Hints:
Layout: E1 3-5, E2 10-11, H1 12-26, H2 34-46, E3 55-56, E4 63-66, E5 75-82, E6 91-99, H3 110-118, E7 122-124, E8 127-129, H4 134-140, E9 148-159, E10 169-176, E11 179-182, H5 183-192, H6 197-215, E12 225-230, E13 236-242, H7 246-269, E14 272-276, H8 282-294, H9 305-309, H10 319-326, E15 334-338, H11 369-382, H12 389-395, H13 398-425, E16 432-440, E17 452-457, E18 463-467, E19 478-487, E20 492-497
Parallel strand pairs: 3-10, 4-11
Antiparallel strand pairs: 1-13, 2-13, 5-6, 6-9, 7-8, 9-10, 12-13, 14-15, 16-17, 16-19, 17-18, 19-20
Helix pairs in contact: 1-13, 2-3, 2-4, 6-7, 7-11
Amino acid sequence: MSTRAVQAGAAADVLGPHLERLRTELEIPAEYPADARAEAEVAAAHGFGADSGRHDLRELPFVTLDPVGSRDLDQAFFLRRVEASGDDAGGFEVFYAIADVASFVEPGGALDAETHRRGLTVYGPDGRFGLHPAVLSEGAASLLPEIDRPAVVWRMRLDSSGSLLEDIEVRRSIVRSRAQLDYPSVQARLDAGTADELLRLLAEIGQLRIDAQFARGGATLEVPDQEIQRSDDDKRYRLELREPLACEEFNAQLSLLTGIAAAILQRRAGVGIWRTLDPARDEDVERLRRVADSLGFDWAPEDSYAQFVRTIDVARPEYAAFATEATRLFRGAGYAAFGTPEHPDVPRAASHSAIAAEYAHVTAPLRRLVDRYGTEIALAFCAGEPVPSWVVDALEALPGEMAEGSSRANAYERAAVDLLEAVLLAPRVGEELDGIVVDSSRTGAADAAQAKATVLLREPAVRARVVGGAAALELGAAVRVRVDSADPEKRAVTLSVA
């Protein structure tokens, strides 16, 4: 992992009031209505019994894998190898347990209405603003270790190449996670060769699924993320540029596998809601080819985008510029509902182009509203029962509700980063700092003074716009800039070429 951080950071008491005003501006709810909170508390206290008709899977040693300190644990997994025997060619068996949120939320109740208003959990520097109250999302519904929990368990078989087989099972169950694992420690064990069989299988299956995604024409690109981190004493914030760990992608592949399985079941049921993403436009791919060429990357004419990104050297300084440009290929993700009075037919073509498959969200119901509905469709189909009317009735409105929630969450996350950038750079106005140009409109600028670019600073990990100095603002170029202004009130930073 490559991380650059601001060591001094910004004081929490300085940032806090700005963040509170920002949440008010974006209408991000912090508190739950009293009736919704009361419903959640009653549901959490009621619990469930072992004689509730659930499939008892407590003997399987499930584990969770999440960022350090997570409490809202949606997923747990158990993996095992299936040896070849007789007509069975062998492969893998994947058990994926998902928090059974529907068991705690009454359709049509106050809590249900509030989750539809929120859409998803919003994460910020000073906390999480949950889709569900913490008594559920971090308590009774979370798959915390060494506690019996209700879950919806997906059982999927893969062949030896990692391809999903037809016999998909989904059942309400009781599970007991044995350990709460985190990404840094798991990656360290994989790197050191001390990982146990379960984690070695995670890496093996994860890589097979990555290979399968590329073979289908999908692609994944590790884009360094700007992340706001808090100090251990919660008194300071810092901004980091962090590259994802390999085990994060392996874990994500289990979620993608389950989402693909969910789409298969929804197609069979004739009712569903898929996550969709249109293919990249040819002209955008050609533009990205020109960007790669200008940065010195060798993209062979016969290679697709998916083939090329598997060969790219992420250690090169120009990689950040290419990754920034590449994210423009895959924008405009949405949802497509079907099996409803308004849209009765299964879509002919509604795949997710980055995954290169039909795909449905079902693996994060604690944090994302739509997953609860996709899960209920799978359960009904596997049980040979009609999809509940409360599910079908909600499908048409879900794409709009999710779009609104995502827009609000993205705006908050971006504005919070903008705010921290301004706070960190305010004491450094007048200083000169080093960076790399990751986005540029220098080419063809009629007036060199009006040329614009985005520069990623090396220290602190700030992305900011630069105006002027056209000759220095070539994409991928190292550049030295001056901090002209930094205004936390406006969440704005102004840089110029030094």
